[in-house]
Fold this protein.
Amino acid sequence: MNIGITGTGGYLGSRISNYLKIKGHTVHSFSSKYSDNDSGFNFYFSLEKGIEKDILSKLDVLIHCAYDFSMTNWGDILKVNVNGTIRLFDDAYESGVKKLIFISTMSSYSSCLSNYGRAKQLIEKHIEKYNSIIIKPGLIYGKTAGGMIGAIKKAVDAIPIIPLVGGDKVLYLIHEDDLCEIINYLLTINNNKNIEIIAANKNGKMFKEIVKQLIRAAGKKRILIPIPFHLVYGILLFFEKLNIKIGFRSDSLVSLYNQNVNPDFSLLDEMHLKLRDLGL
């Protein structure tokens, strides 16, 4: 298959790209880390610019991973991430792309509070009409994890005292290779309706246990200090207003602290895929 993947310069997009190449697919990579002068199967991409329709028309599948995390203002998120993604899917559908796959998040649900979850949810509602496949991964981990797990790993490596917010919150994880296998499986099915699947091991773990496991894996001795949500949230907002990047965003904390307590794993169960143990 000719598969287009956006966000291949990032953690998840690069993993999906490498996995599908190994499976024998032709991958067209779209990333802001490429230049307009790149040739072959690498293309410059931005959510504001989109993908030209003559390129989209050559694709059998579009997997959209890209998201601009630099945006913190809701108006900017709406303009760039939401409207940019909607335009991309509109163009892909009009160009005849047969299968449209959107990488969303478990943070997207009916009463979600984070801007990230709200943005993903708005996109999901728009693209339902295209019989898209919406994949909602849990926290993604692997040897060189990015995202939230990657941020926690960096904190474990760098500081002796780890602030712990919402330690009793139950989170769901998925190994990067298992997520890639789910995507590869979904490429083989004929979907004549919209599909929404939660991609995570349904045996959740409390956040404090995840952090402890990361500490053990790093071979470190660290002290965990429970801290109120609003204190940490205020500190993160303060740094963001000063445009100081510390590797963890206030909106990520909102996602972490306000999880969907009733995720539906039924579609994942129907796939009969064995997800690995939650080893970090």
In short: DSSP finds ten helices and 13 strands in the chain. The mean pLDDT is 92. The radius of gyration is 19 Å.
